[in-house]
Amino acid sequence: MTYHPPGRKRAALTLIVLTPLVAELALGSTPIHFAFLLLLWLPIYGFGVLLIREVVRRCGGGWPSLVLLGVAYELVEDGIGLQALTSPHLYGAARMAPRLFGFNTAYWEMNVVYHVVFSVLIPIALTDLLFPALRDRPYLRRCGLAGIGAGALLGVALLRATVPPSQDPGYQAPAWVLAGCVLAVAVLAVLGLAVLPRRAPRRTPVGSSVGAPRPWLVGAVGAIATGGFLVLSFPIGDATQPAFTHGAWVLVPMAAAAVLAIGTGAAIVRWSGAGSWSDRHRIWLLGGALAAHSMFGAVAVVHQPVDRIGLVVLAAASVALLAALSRRRPAVAPDRIPA
């Protein structure tokens, strides 16, 4: 009989709730004074990301698989649900950069990185830290998985039925775009669930020659990288393009944002392979990213005082809670302490 540690339902519920809180509320995309709207986003965010985690864990995949399915998630949300990837009007996305084959290039770059990190990886990592005994196990049984899958599909339909009719009435993405998104999602799913799990090592060897920096330095990198990417990617104030550029000059911050994201990701992958990498590093990394994320939202995304104050409080609360969690964790991961 398969052993199922206790807390699976609480862990699943935690991930469902955390995902829209981190992805929407903590940036200010959904302002705090409109927090009730998170109930509408629970199916697409909470159920969708829980579905991603469940299928990845069942297939034996790791973080690379989650990254690929995070890209697939962004294509479902922005390409099929909102259809903002090709809309000439929604969110001003078409004005952010020169379009390529009808695609809003800067908008896609901004959102694919954002959703992979803040909609998928960070909520899953936070839940793993809160329920460490379950971090490598599925939370749901088969019936629960089917229900969550149905809920995620409902979330896509709900998103399509609520946002575009009010903010982008009359626009319908071309059939070839929708078909291309579906095909891309299928390819990413095959790579993430069938190909990568067969190639990924099961355990990181103890005594790796690569050293991890001190946890507070990892947190500083997380904060600087997050703030830098958001500043390079989001139009701020009255600007229509990122980094206050005009015309084709937007390609400069777009390239810088891509280099920053790839470089930071590569550094984290390298550090996490070190024998000294532990939950304290993960906690500091998440704390730095979440604090910078909410502070950027307070400065550049929301406008009402209640929302700005709320995001500052949310950033401080996130850091305080993660600091308390860090004090309860060993400096070296138990499975990496040499015998």
Question: What proportion of the residues is helical, as a percent range?
Answer: 55-70%
Largest sheet: none
The percent range for strand residues is under 5%
Number of strands: 0
Number of helices: 10
Q: What gap, in angstroms, lies between the N and C termini?
A: 30 Å
Question: Which structural class do you get from the secondary structure elements?
Answer: mainly alpha
How many structural units, i.e. domains? 2
State the shape. globular
Mean pLDDT: 93
- List the secondary-structure elements in sequence, H or E: HHHHHHHHHH
Radius of gyration: 20 Å
The low-pLDDT segments are 334-339
Transmembrane segments: 33-52, 59-76, 112-131, 143-163, 175-196, 216-236, 248-271, 283-303, 309-326
Keywords: Membrane, Transmembrane, Transmembrane helix
Would you kindly provide a written description of the structure presented here, covering whatever features stand out?
With 339 residues, the chain is mainly alpha-helical. It has two domains: 1-202, no CATH class; 205-339, no CATH class. It contains ten helices and no strands. It has helices at 8-25, 38-58, 63-81, 105-130, 142-167, 175-199, 215-233, 251-272, 279-301, 305-327.
